[in-house]
Amino acid sequence: MVDHVESVMEKISEKFNEGDSSSSDSDDEKKSSPSSLKAKVYRIFGREKPVHKVLGGGKPADVFLWRNKKISGGVLGVATAIWVLFELLEYNLLTLVSHGLIVGLAGLFLWSNASNFINKSRPRISEVHIPEEPVLQFASVLCSEINRAFEILRDIASGRDLKKFLCATASLWILSIVGSCCNFLTLLYIVFVLLHTVPVLYEKYEDKVDAFAEKAMIEIKQQYAVFDAKVLSKIPRGPLKDKKKA
User: DSSP letters along 155-199, please?
Assistant: First the structure.
C-alpha cells in the first residue's frame, strides 16, 4: 500500500515538473520572441547601435541630440551669429579678430590703470595655454580619417566596383552643384544646422523613418537590378573581374 502511494506521488511530481518545464520553455520563447522581432526590424544604413552611439557618444552626441537644450541652443546660436557676421554683414575674419583684440586689450589696459585711482584691485588676467593632449588626439583622428578617405578613393579608382564608382561620381556631381549655389561658409553652416536637426528628428520618429527607408531601399534595388541587366551587364569587364571569376 505504501509503495502504491509512493508511486502515485512520483507520477504527480513528474507531471508538475513537466508542467513547469513546459511553462518555462514557453516563457523563454516569449522572452526570445521580442528580440527576434527586433532583429528583423530594418534600420537605415544597417544601423545596429542607438543614434547616440552612432554619433560617437559623449558630449558631442548630447549636443546634437539636444540632451541639454541650453547648451545645444547656445552652440547653434553662436554658429548662427558667426554665419551672420561673415556672410550677411560680410565681415572679414582678420578684421573681426583684430577688432575683438583691440576692444579686449583696451578694456583691460584702462581697467588696470584706473584701479589705482578708484581704489580697486587690478584685474586678474589668467594664463591661457592650449593643452597638448587633446590637440594630438584630434590630429590623430583627423589623420586617420583622411587616410581612410584616400583609401576609399583609391579603391574606387582601381575599377573593381562599378557601383561604388557611379555612387561617388553622382555624390561629387551633386556636391559641385551645391557648391556653385553657395560658398564654403554657408555650406558648412547648413551642415551644422542639419547635424542639430536631423538626428534629433530621426530619433523621435525612428520607426516611421526606418519603415519608409526600407520601402525606398527595396524600390532602389529593383531599379538598380533593371539598370544592371539592361546597361551594366553589357559593359565589358576588365582583367580583374575575369581573374576573380576564374
Answer: HHHTTS-HHHHHHHHHHHHHHHHHHHHS-HHHHHHHHHHHHHHHH
| pLDDT tens-digit map of 136-171 | 888 998 899 899 989 988 888 887 888 888 888 998
The answer to whether residues 195 and 60 touch, using CB atoms and an 8 Å cutoff, is no
Name the least confident of 26-35, 109-118, 201-210.
26-35
64 burial type by CB count under 10 A (0-12 exposed, 13-18 middle, 19+ buried)? buried
pLDDT band at 70 (very low <50, low <70, confident <90, very high): very high
Half-sphere exposure of 241 (CA within 13 A, CB side): 9
Q: C-alpha cell of 145?
A: 580619417
Cell of 136: 594630438
Give me the sign of the Cα torsion angle 170, 174, 180, 183: negative
Handedness of CA 69, 63, 132, 99 (dihedral sign): negative
- The average pLDDT across 169-174 equals 90
